[in-house]
Specification:
Layout lengths: L20 E8 L7 E7 L4 H12 L4 E2 L10 E7 L1 H6 L7 E5 L9 E3 L4
Length: 116
């Protein structure tokens, strides 16, 4: 099925492989007593590569935690980004976008993954 110009396959309910991940990285910031989770949107299909790209970006903010903090892993692939979210937020392939410390809401709906 061809997708009409200006529309995505997600608009028609067609199964589309997401090509991005929401990654949470625990970062030690100078003004915080304990490491905090910082969220990144990463435009890579492979989860491991997306995690490493997020770690590289997080290191610009501060030191990445080396062990779990409050039961949270230092690096966690939270969810695959839906094709609709990637398109709506204009995330390019290979791009790493810092989303801050609050849980991102503009990137939903997220496709939860439980493959760990």
């Amino acid at each position: 099925m061809r997708t009409p110009p200006g529309r995505s396959a997600a608009d028609f309910g067609t199964a589309v492989r997401a090509k991005g991940w929401m990654i949470g990285v625990m970062v030690e910031l100078p003004d915080e007593a304990a490491p905090v989770r910082h969220y990144f949107a990463v435009g890579l299909e492979e989860r491991a590569s997306a995690e490493w790209k997020a770690i590289d970006a997080a290191q610009r903010l501060g030191d990445v935690a080396t062990s779990p903090v409050g039961g949270l892993e230092p690096v966690h692939a939270i969810a695959e980004l839906s094709a609709r979210a990637i398109e709506a937020q204009a995330l390019r392939a290979g791009e790493v976008r810092s989303l801050g410390q609050r849980t991102p809401r503009l990137w939903g709906p997220l496709e939860r993954t439980y493959r760990d």
